[in-house]
Design goal:
This protein has 271 residues and is an alpha/beta fold. The chain is 38% helix and 20% strand. Strands 1-4-3-2-5-6 form a six-stranded parallel sheet, with helices on both faces. Helix 6 crosses helix 7 (152-164). The structure holds adenosine monophosphate (AMP). Adenosine monophosphate (AMP) binds next to helix 2 and strand 5.
């Protein structure tokens, strides 16, 4: 497994693979890898990528000033071992300084799908995501990139960026990987106390009940508050346009964001 830290070196190697006719998959992550991330690498393998490039970069540009950039969990050694075991062929560990050179002044703004949901609560977040993902696409020359449904809005925003800016690759969406309890796996779960983790189960449970027709949208919000979490949003949107939908009917997606203590958790379910 190759390890790259310099963007130019990754780019040169990927260009050579591409010239040799190899199929390249990219799996962008912020590291502290868990089974959700591993499932993306497995999906890339299943699609017969010759080279699977996993990027591990806590991207400062997508964090707001009061968010958890500094304390976001990092474990390079464990991430390397997990990538190797999962079958990645290259890992990219850049630093903020070599991703964002002095006077970096070009950013990508998606102006439609990023407006609501997390985009409304985290100003500048998707601008940071789009910018770093576009840079990774230009460095890795992937035939396809794999994203998780866990970050549903992010995946839709990236798909729109690829369409509108004519990036020459496919976006693959992989299902949400959950803990046996139902809690969506997330690097941020490490912040949760045992009590908070137990309370957080309400997110997946209430979404499941809603899909089964046993709970309304406002019922989901009430259940989350009752479990002691603070609702950031519970919204039903058209799964493609992300425009608000009145009812959770097929073709919609219900998304939630809520705080368990100081930790902001997200989850969603496709109806
Ligand atoms: P992150 O490191 O949290 O930025 O996530 C990197 C990629 O892994 C994104 O495409 C996420 O949607 C995906 N991902 C994170 N958690 C999960 C999960 N529980 N199931 C599936 N994909 C996930």
């Amino acid at each position: 497994m190759k390890i790259f830290r310099e963007p130019a070196k990754l780019q040169k190697w990927c260009r050579a693979q591409k010239r040799a006719g190899k199929k390249i998959a990219l799996v962008p992550t912020m590291g502290y890898l868990h089974e959700g991330h591993i499932s993306l690498i497995t999906e890339a393998k299943r699609r017969k990528a010759d080279e699977i490039v996993v990027s591990v970069f806590v991207n400062p540009v997508q964090f707001g000033p009061n968010e958890d950039y500094a304390k976001y969990p990092r474990d390079e050694k464990a991430d390397l071992a997990k990538c190797r075991a999962a079958g990645a062929t290259a890992v990219f560990f850049p630093t903020p300084a070599n991703m964002y050179l002095e006077h970096h002044s070009v950013y990508i703004n998606e102006e439609d799908l990023s407006k609501g949901l997390c985009g409304a609560r985290r100003p500048g977040h998707f601008r940071g995501v789009c910018t770093v993902v576009a840079k990774l696409f230009n460095l890795a020359h992937p035939d396809f990139a794999v994203f998780g449904q866990k970050d549903y809005q992010q995946a839709q925003v990236i798909k729109r960026m690829v369409r509108d800016l004519n990036f020459d690759l496919d976006i693959v969406l992989a299902p949400i990987v959950r803990e046996p309890s139902g809690l969506a796996r997330s690097s941020r779960n490490t912040y949760l106390s045992p009590d908070e983790k137990a309370s957080a189960l309400v997110l997946s449970r209430s979404l499941k009940s809603l899909k089964a027709g046993k709970l309304s949208l406002s019922g989901v919000a009430k259940a989350i508050e009752k479990a002691g979490l603070k609702v950031d949003y519970v919204e039903c949107v058209d799964a493609e346009t992300l425009q608000p939908a009145k009812k959770a009917v097929p073709g919609t997606c219900v998304l939630v964001a809520a705080y368990a203590g100081k930790t902001r958790l997200i989850d969603n379910i496709l109806i």
